[in-house]
């Protein structure tokens, strides 16, 4: 009996050694192999005339995809079945639904047009309610953010204005032109009493705006080679800026200073999304990539390279246990990714 137990232990050790050897040859440590929990689950390919997913938002039981088409479109997606339920096609002059925002029972679509436009959509019946056309010279809505009863629209050309819109009567209230005139506003995010605007500049800049009086408070200029703030995200007391080439910058909101930068790849970080423990960065490329970053120590956990043909990750959204990536492809595609470890 003792010899049998001794033989069994020997066999166990041999099997364990073979397993370790196989992982070492593959270049994977055991713990990395065991924690590989960032898989691509499935891909939704939209209709042939529904190309370029400009933005994704989560509201209630559904995900909405804004399409950069002419005229613009918004697709309502059931995340459980991962199938489109219906498509809203905007009016003939309302092109390129490049970004989305939600407030209450309404969805707002910012249009990349001249002059810029914002379309109000009733989510109850998924119909267009009305369209706000901005003042002449205010072109290309590139970012939207909501705070209370106000909607803020960042403009991508001209002087780089931020337009304040009263949602109660859906009218343009006032416009702030940052002193960095000449650079577009590519991203917006609200934290507490402030609105932060990511600027299309080299090096990149982030403008802090006081929401109480809608004035510019301060501008943070990033380090050299941290160019064009395409995306912003907030978690706790920190602001994260997605910049080129392939970097995410961590900013301390307490004193509005740059803490550190994480370099990932030589490409644009189009969008950022956060859940409880992780930050996700969507990268351009063929195929596109999504980088998973641990918030506690600001380190890269893993990188998911999408399937060939799934190119340019333009937008990200977290819903439940999944991350969704909208792609700049024709036809448009949305990739469902297992995000929670």
Topology, please?
Elements: H1 2-25, H2 30-34, E1 40-45, E2 53-59, E3 62-67, E4 73-78, E5 83-89, E6 97-103, E7 106-111, E8 117-122, E9 127-133, E10 141-147, E11 150-155, E12 162-166, E13 171-176, E14 185-191, E15 194-199, E16 205-210, E17 215-221, E18 227-235, E19 238-244, E20 247-252, E21 257-263, E22 269-274, E23 278-283, E24 289-294, E25 299-305, E26 313-319, E27 322-327, E28 333-338
Antiparallel strand pairs: 1-28, 2-3, 3-4, 4-5, 6-7, 7-8, 8-9, 10-11, 11-12, 12-13, 14-15, 15-16, 16-17, 18-19, 19-20, 20-21, 22-23, 23-24, 24-25, 26-27, 27-28
Describe this protein's structure.
The protein folds into 2 domains: 1-34; 44-338, Methylamine Dehydrogenase, Chain H (7 Propeller), CATH 2.130.10.10. It contains 2 helices and 28 strands. The protein has helices at 2-25, 30-34; strands spanning 40-45, 53-59, 62-67, 73-78, 83-89, 97-103, 106-111, 117-122, 127-133, 141-147, 150-155, 162-166, 171-176, 185-191, 194-199, 205-210, 215-221, 227-235, 238-244, 247-252, 257-263, 269-274, 278-283, 289-294, 299-305, 313-319, 322-327, 333-338. The protein is globular and about 45 Å long.
Radius of gyration: 22 Å
CATH topology of the largest domain: Methylamine Dehydrogenase, Chain H
Low-confidence spans = 1-36
Mean of residue pLDDT?
88
The CATH architecture of the largest domain is: 7 Propeller
Secondary structure tally: strands: 28
Placed side by side, the strands forming the largest sheet appear as 1-28-27-26
């Amino acid at each position: 009996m003792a010899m049998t137990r001794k033989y069994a232990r020997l066999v166990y050790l041999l099997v364990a050694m073979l397993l370790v050897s196989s992982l070492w040859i593959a270049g994977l440590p055991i713990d990395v192999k065991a924690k590989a929990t960032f898989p691509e689950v499935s891909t939704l390919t939209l209709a042939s005339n529904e190309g370029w997913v400009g933005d994704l938002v989560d509201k209630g039981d559904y995900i909405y995809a804004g399409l950069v088409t002419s005229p613009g479109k918004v697709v309502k997606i059931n995340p459980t079945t991962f199938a489109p339920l219906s498509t809203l096609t905007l009016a003939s002059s309302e092109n390129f639904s490049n970004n989305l925002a939600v407030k209450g029972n309404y969805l707002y679509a910012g249009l990349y047009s001249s002059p810029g436009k914002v379309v109000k959509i009733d989510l109850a019946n998924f119909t267009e309610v009305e369209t706000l056309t901005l003042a002449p010279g205010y072109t290309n809505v590139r970012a939207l953010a909501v705070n209370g009863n106000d909607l803020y629209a960042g403009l991508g050309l001209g002087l780089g204005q931020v337009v304040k819109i009263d949602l109660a009567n859906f009218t343009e209230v006032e416009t702030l032109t940052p002193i960095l005139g000449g650079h577009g506003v590519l991203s917006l995010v609200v934290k507490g009493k402030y609105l932060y605007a990511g600027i299309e500049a080299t090096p990149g800049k982030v403008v802090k705006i006081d929401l109480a009086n809608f004035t510019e408070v301060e501008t943070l200029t990033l380090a050299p080679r941290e160019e064009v703030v395409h995306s912003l995200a907030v978690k706790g007391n920190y602001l994260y800026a997605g910049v080129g080439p392939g970097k995410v910058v961590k900013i301390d909101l307490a004193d509005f200073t740059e803490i550190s930068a994480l370099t990932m790849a030589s490409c644009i970080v189009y969008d950022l999304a956060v859940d409880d423990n992780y930050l996700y960065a969507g990268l351009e490329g063929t195929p596109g990539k999504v980088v998973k970053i641990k918030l506690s120590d600001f380190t890269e956990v893993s990188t998911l390279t999408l399937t060939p043909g799934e190119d340019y990750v333009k937008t990200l959204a977290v819903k439940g246990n999944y991350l969704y990536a909208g792609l700049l492809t024709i036809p448009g595609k949305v990739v469902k990714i297992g995000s929670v470890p």
